[in-house]
Design a protein that fits this description.
CATH architecture of the largest domain: 2-Layer Sandwich
Strand order of the largest sheet: 3-9-8-7-4-5-6-10
GO biological process, one term: regulation of DNA-templated transcription
Structural class: alpha+beta
Helix content: 40-55%
Protein name: Helix-turn-helix transcriptional regulator
InterPro entries: Sig_transdc_resp-reg_C-effctor, TrmB-like, Tscrpt_reg_LuxR_C, WH-like_DNA-bd_sf
Shape: elongated
GO molecular function, one term: DNA binding
CATH superfamily of the largest domain: Endonuclease Chain A
Length: about 350
Amino acid sequence: MADPSDTPITFPHLSEQGILVYQLALRKGNLTQQLVSQEFELDATQAAEAVSVLLDLHLLRPKEEPQADGSDRVFLPVPPAVAAAGRVAPVEAELRRRLAEAERARAQLSVLEEVYAAGSRQSGTSGFDEILDLPTVLDLIEWLTTTCRTEVLTAQPGGPRAPHLLEQAFARDLAMIRRGVRMHTLYQHTARRHAPTQEYVERVTAAGAEVRTLTELFGRILVFDREVAVLPHRVSIDGAMVVREPSLVAYLCEVFDRAWSSAEAYTPLRQWDYVLDDVKHAVIRLLAEGMKDEMIARRLGMSLRTCRKHVAELMEALGASSRFQAGYLARTRLDVNASVAVAPKPSTAVARPEGDPA
């Protein structure tokens, strides 16, 4: 049997048509479905729906006296304040009851924090939590987001994120920013091409967040208040490791800060954008290391199709007939460029004859 407390609390939408019907009831003193049909040229179903919404919102009530001649039922208008007291007040009371239950549950569970901490110390896992199921991970992130006080650091490798995930993230992030929480987010350059990501970044930066990009990222990470870090689980694709050990969290924050300092502010990527060159240089470097297309695409956060397009263009530019030859030529080019970069510049000093004073 379903728990009534699990039933979602919803209200019908009061449309412009519904407002006009309510105004008609006020003007006439009462109304019937037949009157609604005639006044607004609606069929019986549409008129019944319009009246039903007003009844659900308690803005109409049936006339107590039944119609002796069996004519259409009469409805009387109800003042909005009275309707709110009858329709909204019980819902508010139910919400207060649910909130009180949630607070009692939180208080009961918080008693076990010391028990959990003691068990962690005995097992040698103090400062680390392993979570293997996605719902618990999402609940934890939601709680950390809600309780975050000062700063959140986020690195999101892997290219563009799904639009529905971005929409969920925006609502969560906006609530944090409005509480005064600073937000720094790192993406890969390839996310600059993604229209939903562009829209998300525009909205979240307008609210006060900062977003930057790099060609490659060190991995996915969330850090809250520089006290708690959430990392991907090594084995479970849906799991996470939660790190609270201060020295390790500080180290992870330093890794993030170094990447942040060398990253570029997010702007939509154009065909001539300089970061496109960074991406192509990264493809050359990884090709020279002998990586397959799939691995390069995953490493740079791009689709396999885009990666193969870049590789084909580079093979053509290098004059290579195979990936092996392209890798060799790319490695040669990189070695030459590195030699030029470190070679000492020729001296521009003018030789002086012996004995010539400086």
